[in-house]
Structures are given as structure tokens and as C-alpha cells.
């Protein structure tokens, strides 16, 4: 098992400079963190469940076995024809504050796979319209208006930290499906359906592990002081305090390069656990600061900080023993998850330059889940109301390469749009990420 | 490393009298190229039309990559001088400033286009300097900071020595003192300037590479903005002294770090003040101090400068054009589809803001880079007055415009004392300070999450932009913008025809002569600032209603620079120039023609605007509107030679 995990290439967000992006990545913590490396995806079919004789990179559709999520729905292995069905995607494609083109790249790969090998939706191809928010509320609104003008059937999520446009989509009855829920709107508006716990899920998973497994009595939470991140940190604080845990809150500015000061502040109270709400370029200085301060507290970092480049850059001694969260299917030891394998094959064929371990995993999952819902609606596939209704009725519905989802608005207390509230914890042991838990239902944990 | 950047600015100013606003952006390009070279072995070329990358070498060592990057920087510096600033060596300050703004826009956009990631580094930035920390007064200070400061000091000393004791240095100083005498002495100011530009660009590139290797961060916006503190340091050194510029650079860096620490830990700092904004506002204060202490403009070079001012013709038949324009605008609002309607609205609002630059810079000669910041003040005022104080339309925008006027007059006070390039630097500092302190304040503007603007209503009529489905953007809002845009040029064209307009032009031509003729130069300038700020404020208020959600990024400093730049491109002294600037604005009509936001065509819009700006600064100082007007005049004069087709009306229609 440990070898399997070791092979995993975690988030490859080795870029972007601000703490804000650290915050954004935190929101996305662990969402795509646990994909198999691409080499496992090209191992062919023999002996692997779901792989038929024709299963290879040239014909990915032949790899859809009954053990995959897609295998549970009917599909025709032909290319789609006819008028395209417009699906939107709102994402932060570019901008000085961070860019996440891997999400749209994964979406495009999913759409190409659906169109070329799954017969599209009712034989019609999907046309993906990607809009860049340029990291601004106004950009988010502009994207939503663009989607409405183009009369898209639904919009899939990328990253939109502001979510102003998501509210407008909701006002216009447009379903907003998946992506990385990094705004309060994406986690709460009635037409949004999310397959990740976002920031709330990540922090609560840490709190759960710290209290249940490590019996922590005092916890410091470091977090970017920004809207939903602050909200997630406060939610976690409330839950911990109800459990009798002493909590120290250490907010730090959205734009900062100084991670030493907040970590020093967190260490000073000598807590049993420190939850570090940073990622990306914030990871390395945080790891190093924590090492320099020689804290004995258990350190929790987001899955984003488990990227091999980050671990390598921070150094083995600084990262040893650190915990991370993930939201991916955890395969049994010695096996490869069928969905993960299929995902890798699709990427190898349709987006060969995209790192399968990137955050694109989440976008891919979202598009496949949307496709499966549309496919199940038959002639009503392009009816927005029918689609919304179908998602709302979903109970323990299979999710591509993720935990099943239930969109009755009750899965995650206070965040009705979050349909999946399961997280898992892994630990870095001598350079290997070792699973420490199965699925943790953080929604139920928050409700306690 | 601010010190090294400041030295580069001093060098280029000494060499060619140019304050290069693109100095740090070019340094950022070199740094991006260096780290890409280290990672992939690819040399990334910064010229549109040429291949983006050339694979040079496997994975070069730090030393090899640094050598190649230094060579690249030298070539880039040489090209910048040869193709941009050499043709402008005798041009008026405005043309040179605009060319450097064009270079800035182009460089920033090329970084985004060539390196991806939206202008942020998507490669790993390795350590180049020694790691580890030393403890000073119980505070751990990384060693690399000391090494960095040491490198800057050594660079300053070496350069100081070169310019004091070598023939090259003495020649450069001689050419800076008196270009004509230098030529007579057998020196080649051109060659000297070219070498200095190469040195400055190399310095800038190496400085940004080292900064990035320490901070592990590299993005085009924040790196380009380093030009503001670097300018403050260079100004404190009078744009002449390497030593003072270096010391000032070191001092500013240390003061900023100390201020950041103080503002983070101190309880004395009011909550509404953004902690990170306090250090960013410091350079503006230092710029003001430098201006006050010096009491005069920057030392000018002993080169002949053209005293050219773009022509500022009186608009003929303003009422007729207003009526026609309004009718056309309203018709378009009622007939265009959503995307085009929105593009037209964006263009019209941009035109109103550009009009403020026409008045202030085109007619009065005051180079202000703070107009968009003033628009931003008005926009956030509208948002907060409407949503928090519940002050209804039209009172909230009116109050906001008054606030903008007050802010504009305040920003205009440095203009009483300085002009030209110095004023441009001072207003850039002011714009940066407004952004750092006011716009980034969560209490004042909502911070990066922004603030929403309620929809305007008048006597029960919805004048807002928001609408469901195809209704967006609502025509009612568009018509309101059409009416405002129709009235604004009418008002300013009347001012232009009035004695006030004549006083403005007199001040633009020669302040001393104007004062001798009995014109109160101070009040004339301040009135111009007030009028321009009213226009910018009106545009800002409309922006608040158009966007419905405002955040500081809408008014970032670089967009402010682009506003002046596009107005120059359109025609800085003509009302028609503002209309053209509006059409060229991002998200406006040109963007829509190019296929809309996010299209392949619009990707290159900004980079092409930068190139066009440089071309216009060199070849057509009257802008596109001036070019069109000249073309019309030329055609008419040809037609005039044919008696049968003699035109009845030979007057120029400016708008």
C-alpha cells in the first residue's frame, strides 16, 4: 500500500506566489491529491478489472468495466454528432493572483472523451465554453452573464473564490456543478452541487483526526483571513471547542510572505496539534518555520502541500510526520482503483501533457458526474430544471473517482450545496504518504 | 535589491533622460526567462511574431543560465533603446513617458503570453543564495538577505567607480550634462546611451532573479510595481547619485520590512488600515519628500528637447454632434445584442474616464497617472454610500463625484510645484498609495472580496444593469450612460472654447509666459484637476453600477497607466481621442470585434496596444484621432486643387 501511495504524485501546484493562493489551494485541499501516476494508467487490461481485450490508450471506452462508475450507466461507443450541447465552465484561468488552467484542461479531456467515445449526450456532442474570472468578483459576474447569454445547459466549476457569478447563475436557474467549492456561494446556493468538502471539509478532517486519533487537547489553527476560509476555520473552532479542546486562532493576511510570524505565534501556546492553512508557495516556508521552531505538535497541512516538489524543496526532516487530507478513492493495497485507472487513460489520450495528479482530477470528476446525470435524463438532458431536480434527488449516487454523493442539502450542516463530505488523512513517513484513516464523514462530525 | 533597481533607473535617466516605468517589468521578463532556462533549457523570446521558444541546452547550470540571461538582458536593453527610446531622444517628456508605458504594457503581456500562469511563475524557483539564518536581538534573519544587500552595495560601488573614474563613465556623465558639447568633443551619446541601457537592463534582470530566489515568488504585477519604491529611491538620489540611490533603496527596503512588522504586531494601527498597505504607501511619502526637498523638477539633460504639444482643436458644432451621438447611442442600446451592448457600455464609460486625461494631460499638460485611482475612489464611494448608508441614486453618485473632485484637487497639489516627468512619478506614487491604503482596506472597500453596488433607481424607474436572461445588460442603464457620455464632452468642449480653455492651453505651452500674462497658474491647474477628477469620478460611479461588484483589482495601478496610454493612442488632446480610447479599452468594442473576452484575438489586444503606443509616441504624437484628422485635411487639400469638387466646409471637426 505504501508503495502505491508513494507513487502518487500529489498536487503539482509548484507555482503562484501569494498567501491568497495558498488559501485557494487550501480550499481545494486534498481534492485531487491522490491520483495514480500516469504510468499505472497505461498498464493495459490483462488481469485488471474492467479492462477488456481492446482496452488501451487508443480505445479508452473499452476500459470501462462494470467496476467503474461509468460502467453503471449505458453508453454507446461512438462519436457524437449533431447540434452541440453547451456546457459552461467558470475558472480562474489566468491572473497574477493565481491560475488554474489544469482544471479546464481536465474538463476538456473529459468532454473529448465523452464526445469521441461515449456518444456524447443522446448522440449530441458537448461543447465546453470556458470563461476566466481573472480573479475578481466582476470577472465572476461577467462569466456568469456570458454563460447565460450563450444559454448553456449547466456550468461546471473550476475555481472561483468570489462566487458572485454563481449567485447570478442560481438566479437564472442554471445548475452549477462541481469544481472546487472555494466560495460560500458555491457551497450554499440552491442550484449548486458539489462533490467536495472544500475548506470546511479539510479543516474538519484535521480536527477529527487530531481529537479522535491523537487525543489533542489544544489546537492552533492558522488560516488566511479571507471570507470562506475564515468561515471554515471558525466552524472548525466551534466544533473543537464543543469537544472541550482549547483552540488558538491565528489568522494571517491574504497577501503575505511572512509565515514565520504566524507559526511562531501558533507554537508559543505549545499546542498538541497545529493546523496550517496554507498551500503552494506557503508550504515550504511553513514547513521550514515549523522545523526551525522545533515544535512537537502534530502538523496538519493541506493535500496541496504534499506535492513531491514541495516535499522535496522543504526537506525530509521538515516534512517528516506531517499529516495531509485527501478526497480521492483509496484503493485496496496492491490494486489500482478502476476509476483512477480510467481517468489516467483518458488523460493519456486526450490531455497527455496534463499531470494526472493535478487539481484537474476534481474538474474531471465534476464533468463526468454531470454527464452521467444528463445521460440518465434522456430527452430531458438539456432541461435545466430537470437536471437540478435530478441532482437534488441524488442519494448515495456514485461519483466518478470519488465518494458517492447525496444532494438533499443535509449532507453538510449549513452548507446545503455540498453533496460529499468525506475526507481521509495520510501521513508522510520517510517520504511515503501512508493512509491513517478510511473515509471520515466530516459533515456528521460538524453536526455533533 | 531595491537599490539595484534604483541604480538601473538612474542609469537610464542619465543615459537618455527617460524614466523607464517598464524597468522592473523588463527585469521580471529576464527573471522569467532565467528560471525557464534553468528548468527546460529553453530561451524564451519576447518579440511577437518570432518563435516563442528556442531550445538551447539540456538543463543549464545556474552559472550558464545566468550568463545566457545576462546576454539576453543586454540584447533586450539594446533593442529597447534602439527601437523605442533612441527615436524619442529629443521628444517631449509626455511622448517618452507614454512610450515607457507602452513598453510596460507590452512586456507585462508578453510575460503572460510567453510564460503562461497568468503572469505568475509556474516553475520552481530554486535557491541561488546561501540558506540559513542568523539571530539578531532574538530575531532570526535569513543570511540571504544580507548577501542580497551586500550584492547591491557592491554593485553600487562598482558602478559609482566606473562612472567616476573610467573614460566610459566620464563620457556618460559628460553626455548627460551637455549632449551637444559631448558630440563636439567626439563622443557618441547614442553609443553611450545604448551601453547604459544594456547595463541597466542587466542590473534589473539580475536584481529580480535574486529577489525571486529569496522570496520564492515571481509574478509580473508585484514585480513591475517595484518600480515605485525604486523610483522613490532614485528620486531621493536626484536621479543622479548612485550612492544616495543605493542607500535610499536599502533604507526603503528596511523601513518597509520594519513597517510591515510594526503594523502586524502593533495595536496602535487602526483596524481599517490594511496592514500590508502601510509599507506600500511609504514610497509615495518619500517621493513627496524628495519633491519638496528638491523644490524643483528633476535635473534635465543637456539635450535639445522639442517643445511640441499635440494639437488641441476646438470641437465644431458640439450640440449637433451631441444630438446625433445621443440618437445613435440610444438606437444601438435598443437594438444591439447583449454582448455588443455590454461592450458599448464598457467603451462609453472608459471614454468618460479617458476624457479626464484629455482635459488634464492633453489640454493643460499635467501628466497624471492617478486618474483611474480617482475614478476608483468615486466608485467605492458609490458602492458604500448606496449599500451601507442607503443614500439613494442620484445623490450617492453625486456625493462620490464631489469626493473624487476633492481627491483630485488634493492629488493636484504636487502639480503646483512640479511638472512633466516628476509629476508623473508623483501621481504614480499617489495612485499606488491610494491602492495600498484605501482600495485594499477591507473596511473601506471590502478588500479583495469587494463590495456590491445596489442597482440605481430614479422615481421608481430601474436604471440598473442587472437583468435576467437576455435582458442583461439592461438597455435602461446603457441609455443612462449614453446621456452622461453625451453631456460630458459637451461640457468640456464648452470649457475648451471659454477663456478657461485658453488659460489651460497657455499654461500647457509655457507656465512662465502664462504667469507673465496675468494667468493664475496655480488655480488654473487646480481647476483642471477638479474638472478632470469630476469626469473620472463620473466614470468611476458608472463603473460601480456597471460591474455591480467592485474590488480593488478593477482600479489597479497598471490599468491606470493603460488609461493614460490608450488616451494618448486615441489622441490625448482631442475629444475624439477619448472616444477612440474607449473603443480600444479592454472589454470594449475592440475586444468584441476580436471575438469577445477570452478569445484568441483579444489575448493579443494589450500587447498590440503596447506596440501601437510606442509607434504612436514616435510617429504620430497627435494619436489616432490626430492622424485621421490630418488624413482628412490632406484629402481635402487635394480635392481643393480640383475646382469642380471644392468642398463647402473646410473646417475640422474634432469629434
TrEMBL record, chain A:
* Ranges for domain Leucine-binding protein: 84-402
Record SUPFAM superfamilies: Periplasmic binding protein-like I (SSF53822)
Keyword terms of this UniProt record? Signal
Q: Do you know which InterPro entries this protein is assigned to?
A: BCAA_transport, Leu-bd, Peripla_BP_I
Q: Where are the transmembrane segments?
A: none
Query: Gene3D superfamilies in the record, alphabetically?
Result: 3.40.50.2300
Q: Does the keyword Signal apply?
A: yes
Q: Which PANTHER family match?
A: LEUCINE-SPECIFIC-BINDING PROTEIN (PTHR30483), PERIPLASMIC BINDING PROTEIN OF ABC TRANSPORTER FOR NATURAL AMINO ACIDS (PTHR30483:SF6)
| Protein name per the record | Unannotated protein
UniProtKB/TrEMBL annotation, chain B:
Q: Mind listing the UniProt keywords for this protein, alphabetically?
A: Cell membrane, Membrane, Transmembrane, Transmembrane helix
Subcellular localization, as worded in the UniProt entry: Cell membrane
| Principal location listed in the UniProt entry | membrane
| Topology of this chain in the membrane | Multi-pass membrane protein
- Note the Pfam families from the entry: BPD_transp_2 (PF02653)
Spell out the molecular function terms from Gene Ontology: branched-chain amino acid transmembrane transporter activity
Bilayer-crossing regions: 62-84, 146-165, 194-214, 226-252, 272-293, 314-334, 340-360, 393-413, 420-439, 475-495, 526-548, 554-571, 578-595, 607-631
Listed under GO cellular component are: plasma membrane
Q: What is this protein called?
A: Unannotated protein
Q: Give the species this sequence originates from.
A: freshwater metagenome
